[in-house]
Amino acid sequence: MRSIRIPSANRITVQKTSDSQITVTLPRDYQLSNLPMTGLFKIRCALDKEGNEWNETVGINQTWVGPNTIRDSIIRACPNYRDNIEVFTGPNYNYNEDGRDFLVRFVGLNYDVPQMEISSTIDQPITGDNLNFTSYAWMPYN
Predict the structure, then answer these.
(1) Could you tell me if residue 1 is inside a domain?
(2) Domain ranges, residue 45
């Protein structure tokens, strides 16, 4: 089920009370969906092997972008990864409004790449319910 911004009900009552009047009764209890995620995120990436210099992408719209846009944004911010990264959509969310999951794979880099960080932008922050930004190395270099 996709997150929606408005209340929803699974049943309403419609009753004809006279020849000229129809009464619609909404239930007292209705479900509010999770607030859909909106806003921009940015990715912080290292410009060198040791992680002494860092840069970050411009704001990336979390709802409408795919893996290629994320890859291109990382390369613009950290050109040292050009031709060395692949970005894939992860399996955790069916709808971008519910969350984003993507994997960054480093190819041909023979060192432990400093961990990239994901965060919300200041001017258009990510909003939604139970927000959690997580970055981790799935398979560290060895």
Answers:
(1) no
(2) 40-120
Q: What is the pTM of this model?
A: 0.73
**Number of structural domains the chain divides into:** 1
Mean pLDDT by 10 residues, the chain (142 residues): 57 64 64 75 94 95 87 96 93 82 89 90 89 78 64
State how far the Cα of 138 lies from the Cα of 91, in Å rounded to an integer: 14
CA 59, CA 113: separation in Å to the nearest integer?
A: 22
Return the closest-CA partner of residue 28 out of 6, 4, 3, 9: 9
Supply the DSSP symbol for 56.
Answer: E
40 CB-near residues (< 8 Å, 6+ apart): 59, 60, 61, 62, 120, 121, 123, 124, 125, 126
